Amino acid sequence: MRCIALILPIIFTMGEISAIAQEPPDKSWIAAVKDATVAIGTIRTARVQAPKGRADKEIFAIVGTGVIMLPPEQTEGPPWLVTAKHVLYSPAMKWDPDSIQIRFNWFDHKPVDDYLGITIRLKEKNRRLWIAHKDPSVDLAAIPLDLSVREAGRTTAGPVPVQAYASANDVFEGASILVFGYPGAVGPTYWTKAVVRAGIIAWTDPERPLSNPFLIDSAIYPGNSGGPVFKVPAGLDRHGNVSLGGKVAFLGIISQGRKAINPLRAAGREVELQGPAGPTAVLSEQWVGIGVVEPAERVRELLVQAYESRKSAK
Predict the structure, then answer these.
(1) For the segment 80-136, what is each residue's pLDDT rounded down to a tens digit?
(2) With b meaning 16 or more CB within 10 Å and e meaning fewer, what string describes 68-87?
(3) For the chain, what is the largest distance between any 2 Cα atoms, rounded to a whole number of angstroms?
(4) Full-model pTM
(5) The pLDDT value given to residue 13
(6) What is the three-class DSSP state of 149?
(7) For residues 220 and 199, what is the distance between their CA atoms, to the nearest angstrom?
(8) Given its phi and psi angles, is residue 164 left (phi above 0), alpha (psi -120 to 50 degrees) or beta?
C-alpha cells in the first residue's frame, strides 16, 4: 500500500536535487541522470539465501526502466515517468498489470528482497491512469508521479531538462552515446543500480532523423526498455572532425533490443528433440547488441499530450 502519512508531493525541479539525506556537493551529470532513471519492476516470489538456509521470499524483479521528465510548459504539479509502452502494457506478452513497482536510484543500497519499491497504480475502475503516445505505432507511455516525500525518500529530484533535447545535428551515424537503464542480465544484486553503457548510433533515417526510430550499437538486454539515451560530445562529429566541444543531448527512449534466433548445433549437427509429431529443432536466442530507440521528438510529443490531458482534466 502507498504511504499517506505525509501528503506533501514530491517536487521535481530543473536544477540540482535537494534531498532529505545529505548528497555530494559536486554531482556529476551522469549522477544526475541516474537519479532521473527509475527501475520499473514487479513483486515476485524467489528462493533466497536466509540465515537458516534457503527460503521463499518476495523480491523486486526488474521489468523495465523509466525516466523522470517534465512537459515543456509544465511549471508545477507532479512530474511524469516516461517509459516504453510495452513495459506497462503488452497484449503480445499477455502483460496488463494493475500496478507496477518503482525504485529510485538513491535506494540502490537496499537489496531487492529487502525493499520492494513504491507501488504505482496503472488502473482505476478499469480506467488506465497512464497515457500512450497518440500514434499507436510509437512505443512510448507516461504516467504521473504524484508521491509523498516519505515514499520518494527526498523532497525534490531533477528530471531530464527540456533544454537537453537533441537537435538534428546530434543525430548521425557513428555518434557516441551513453545508455542508462536496469538490464536484468546483470543479476539481482545489481537490479538496484542504474547501469551506464557506451555505444554509437548505428543507423538513422536520413530524411527524418528526429521523428523516426533509429538503431544504436550498445549492450541492450531485457530491462533496458524505457531507458534514456544521450549523445555525448566525444569522438568524431557528423563531418568527420574530432569533436572538441558541445553538449550532452537527450536522444530518446529505448524501445527494444534485437536478437538472433538460430538452431542449436552440437558436433556439427543441428540438435533435435524427438516427439510424437516428429523431430523438433532446438533454437537458441542471442542478443546481438542492437537497440531500437524512439526519438526525443516523439517523447516531447507525448509530454505535450500529457500536459494537455492534465489541463483538460482540471
Answers:
(1) 999 999 999 999 999 999 999 999 999 999 999 899 999 999 999 889 999 999 999
(2) bbbbeebeebbbbbbbbbbb
(3) 67
(4) 0.85
(5) 37
(6) helix
(7) 10
(8) alpha
Q: How far apart are CA 145 and CA 209, in angstroms?
A: 30
- Measure the CA–CA gap between 37 and 105, rounded to whole angstroms: 7
- Contact between 251 and 170 under an 8 Å Cβ cutoff? The reply is yes
C-alpha to C-alpha distance for 46 and 56, rounded to whole angstroms = 5
- Helix residue ranges, H only, 37-178: 85-88, 149-152
Strand, coil or helix: 117: coil
Angle at 35 between CA 33 and CA 38, to 5 degrees: 100
Find the length of the chain.
314
From 3.40.50.10490, 2.40.10.10, 1.10.10.10, 3.40.50.300, which CATH number describes the 11-261+285-313 domain? 2.40.10.10
DSSP-based helix, strand, coil % in the chain, nearest 5: 15, 40, 40
Residue 144 pLDDT > 80: yes
CB 6 within 8 A of CB 79: no
Dist CA 99 CA 117 (whole Å): 12
Quickly list H helices, 4-43.
29-36
- DSSP alpha helices (H): ranges in the chain? 29-36, 85-88, 149-152, 296-313
Dihedral sign, Cα of residue 161, residue 162, residue 167, residue 172: positive
How far is residue 301's CA from residue 283's CA, in Å, rounded to a whole number? 40
In the numeric block, which cell numbers belong to residue 73? Answer: 510548459
**Domain residue spans in the chain?**
11-261+285-313
pLDDT in tens, 272-292: 887 787 778 777 777 778 999
Cα-Cα-Cα-Cα dihedral sign, residues 154, 160, 162, 163: positive
